[in-house]
């Protein structure tokens, strides 16, 4: 499956879970708990990603990165940001020097 298709299908599922019963869906339960609960999960997954990156086993890092991306997408959906907001921003930065992009943020 194309990586873009995976993200598109995942994001559609995350959007659909907004109206699902929180008792029957992990994602719906996160939405019901609100922004702070989602932010806590993103923070936890970021910390676990950092720890996994210190591990010599790459599978652990991949697993934690998937959790981090997943929960970041949950946050985006919760905030009603379309997936294209992220992909458009990444496309805007593509081909631009990372140093130049960072310098443009300080203006």
Explain the overall architecture:
With 107 residues, this protein is an all-alpha fold. 76% of the residues lie in helices and 0% in strands. It has helices spanning 3-16, 26-33, 35-53, 58-78, 83-93, 98-105. Helix 3 runs antiparallel to helix 4. The longest helix is centred in the middle third of the chain and has 21 residues, at 58-78. It is globular. The chain starts with a helix and ends with a helix. The mean pLDDT is 93.
List keywords for this structure.
mainly alpha, globular
Short description:
This protein has 107 residues and is mostly helical. The protein has helices spanning 3-16, 26-33, 35-53, 58-78, 83-93, 98-105.
Calculate the mean pLDDT score and round it. Answer: 93
Principal-axes shape call: globular
Q: How many separate helices?
A: 6
Distance between the termini: 40 Å
| Computed CA radius of gyration, to the nearest angstrom | 16 Å
Level of helix content?
over 70%
Biggest sheet record: none
Enumerate the spans where pLDDT stays under 50 for 5 or more consecutive residues: none
* Beta-strand segment tally: 0
Q: What amount of the residues lies in strands? A: under 5%
Helix and strand pattern: HHHHHH
Structural class determined from secondary elements: mainly alpha
List the helices and strands and how they pair.
Blueprint: H1 3-16, H2 26-33, H3 35-53, H4 58-78, H5 83-93, H6 98-105
Helix pairs in contact: 3-4
């Amino acid at each position: 499956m194309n990586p873009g298709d995976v993200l598109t299908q995942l994001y559609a599922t995350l959007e659909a879970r907004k109206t699902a019963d929180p008792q029957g869906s992990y994602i719906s339960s996160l939405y019901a708990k609100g922004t702070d609960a989602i932010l806590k999960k993103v923070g936890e997954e970021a910390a676990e990603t950092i720890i996994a990156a210190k591990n010599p086993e790459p599978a652990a890092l991949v697993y934690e990165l998937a959790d981090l991306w997943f929960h970041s997408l949950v946050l985006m959906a919760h905030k009603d940001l379309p997936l294209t907001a992220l992909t458009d921003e990444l496309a805007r930065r593509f081909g631009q020097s990372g140093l130049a992009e960072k310098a443009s943020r300080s203006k």
